[in-house]
Write a structure and sequence with these properties.
Elements: E1 2-9, H1 13-25, E2 31-34, H2 43-46, H3 58-61, H4 77-90, E3 97-98, E4 102-109, E5 114-121, E6 124-135, E7 159-161, E8 176-180, H5 184-193, E9 199-204, E10 210-213, H6 218-226, H7 229-253, H8 255-270, H9 276-280, E11 292-295, H10 298-304, E12 308-312, E13 315-318, E14 322-325, E15 330-332, E16 335-338, E17 351-354, E18 357-358, E19 366-367, E20 371-372, E21 378-380, H11 389-410, E22 415-417, E23 428-430, H12 438-441, E24 449-451, H13 462-471, E25 479-481, H14 487-502
Parallel strand pairs: 1-2, 1-6, 2-3, 4-17, 6-21, 7-16, 8-9, 8-16, 9-12, 10-11
Antiparallel strand pairs: 4-5, 5-6, 13-14, 14-15, 17-18, 19-20, 22-25, 23-24
Helix pairs in contact: 1-11, 5-10, 6-7, 7-8, 11-13
Length: 503
């Protein structure tokens, strides 16, 4: 058994950021980072498909404490990996990472006031103990991407690839490629594949909103020449977070106006003869699903040049030669790319328990989008779906440090969110609401609920979260420092609340 004050699970953006804040704000705490893979970087090390890049600007996807120095604000995967490695090296975080250690179980002992973590390491089983557990394992299954059950997929005579596990030596030059999907991954892949492939077809069941912007932030690049680096970065980060917030809220308050603007940009890029209504006009409102970003019109340029084609149609089946559509047409292909999304999972897919009893997370309520009712000493990092992931990751790790330091001040070893008397009868909703993307809807029933009043909301609103997380006092009556009621009493309270809201 190996003991630490804090265990961080995951060495991606969230884990590296958490380690930095922990070192800065809780310097006397011992900690380790358990990483299931052989390298740091998380998503940005795993995904290696051609053209992989961010769809958020790096002045907000980057850490609050480490300026982004590159000219391109919409950065590619290698540049982001370099940035993460630099961050770890500059802050001696790498020394704390234990690689190839996949967390399988976590059990909280009320008697010992600690978590026992079961880990698989190169075929062996290890155990760690800690007082406080920070889950920074991302939000999807790293082992398997999501691929629908296409009829006849096994009959295909070519190569089938999911972007999550792109083969290093896949040769696509002079090949016919069909990319199934039109989300962020698909629109990134298509223009890059089109540079070498004989043909590239983006096959979509329904359109996605696509917006283009320059890959360089001219204001940021100018500010770096005029101001000290940290000042320039801070100003740019402030500017861009406000812009993200303004755009998102505009889509909620004036969806039809934003829709016209987005569609107008596509029409301008593709010209009057292109069927924008069919291929780039979704039936839903902007940000009901994630808005896709392309840099410098790259997707539109590929379409204009005839190097890439968009087909909007249902799939009937996969044949030996390609994809048969519902209208009877067959798209011939040598390579099928199933850019069909991720498999979301909670807390890295590990099995959690309280005093040996499995935790049923859907029966718990999210506290500020990062802790869960009746579950002690556990914080999960889950970034924004409508803004840069790291904005919320930074807030979460800062908050965790505040909580840990408050525990020390009060000389207690346990902190637990608990529904209050005034929360009885509170309406409950899905953990993420107002978002219709399939990858999210498929798993929401497996996630905790959120309440419709603070501090039980999961707002997906950075400006609101700064007040709720960074500035609000810890003493809110819901966050209990020290022992709480017996587990049975707490569970009954949560059950009563769910029953009332469901009725």
């Amino acid at each position: 058994m190996i003991d630490f004050d804090v265990v961080i699970v995951g060495a991606g953006i969230s884990g590296i950021g958490s380690a930095y804040h922990l070192q800065q704000k809780c310097p006397d705490k011992s900690f380790t980072i358990l990483e299931g893979r052989a390298a740091l970087g998380g998503t940005w090390d795993l995904f290696r498909y051609p053209g992989v890049r961010s769809d958020s600007d790096m002045h907000t996807l980057g850490f609050s404490f480490k300026p982004w120095r590159e000219a391109k604000a919409i950065a590619d995967g290698p540049a982001i990996r370099k940035y993460l490695h630099e961050t770890a090296e500059e802050n001696d975080i790498g020394a704390h990472i234990r690689y190839n250690q996949s967390v399988k179980t976590a059990n909280w002992s009320s008697a010992e006031q600690c978590w026992t973590i079961g880990v698989e390491h190169n075929g062996s089983q290890l155990s760690y103990r800690c007082n406080f557990l920070m889950m920074c394992s991302g939000y999807y299954n790293y082992a398997d991407g999501y691929t629908p059950q296409f009829k006849g997929l096994g009959d295909f005579g070519g190569t089938v690839v999911h972007p999550q596990h792109w083969p290093e030596n896949l040769e696509y030059a002079d090949k016919k490629v069909v990319v199934i999907g039109s989300g962020a991954t698909a629109i990134t892949l298509v223009p890059v594949l089109a540079e070498k492939a004989a043909s590239v077809t983006m096959l979509q069941r329904s359109p996605t909103y696509v917006a283009s912007r320059p890959d360089q932030d001219r204001i940021a690049n100018t500010l770096r020449k005029l101001l000290p680096e940290k000042w320039a970065y801070a100003v740019t980060r402030f500017k861009n977070t406000r812009m993200q917030d303004m755009v998102y809220k505009r889509t909620r308050s004036h969806p039809e106006q934003v829709k016209r603007q987005l569609i107008g940009m596509v029409k301008k890029a593709l010209g009057p003869d292109y069927d924008v209504k069919k291929h780039f006009t979704p039936k839903y409102n902007p940000w009901d699903q994630r808005l896709c970003l392309i840099p410098n019109d790259d997707l539109f340029e590929s379409i204009r040049a005839g190097d890439a084609t968009v087909v909007t149609e249902q799939i009937d089946s996969i044949t030996e030669a390609g994809v048969r559509l519902s209208n009877g047409e067959v798209l011939e292909a040598d390579i099928l790319v199933t850019a069909t999304g991720l498999n979301l999972q909670l807390l890295g897919g590990a099995q959690f328990s309280l005093d040996g009893e499995a935790i049923d997370f859907p029966s718990h309520v999210s506290y500020k989008g990062m802790m869960y009712s009746d579950i002690p000493n556990l914080i999960q990092t889950f970034g924004y779906i409508n803004a840069s992931w790291t904005l919320r990751a930074d807030l979460t790790s800062e908050y965790a440090c505040r909580v840990i330091n408050e525990m020390d001040r009060l000389e207690v070893r346990q902190v637990t969110p608990r529904l209050r008397e005034q929360d009885a009868g509170m309406a409950l909703g899905p953990w993420i609401d107002d978002f219709s993307a399939g990858y999210m809807q498929r798993v929401m029933h497996l996630f905790p609920k959120q309440g419709l009043q603070d501090p039980w909301r999961n707002t997906q609103d950075f400006m609101a979260d700064k007040k709720l997380i960074r500035n609000a006092p810890l003493a809110d009556g819901a966050l209990i420092f020290g022992d709480v009621a017996e587990p049975g009493q707490v569970a009954q309270t949560a059950a009563d609340t769910s029953a009332v809201s469901a009725g």
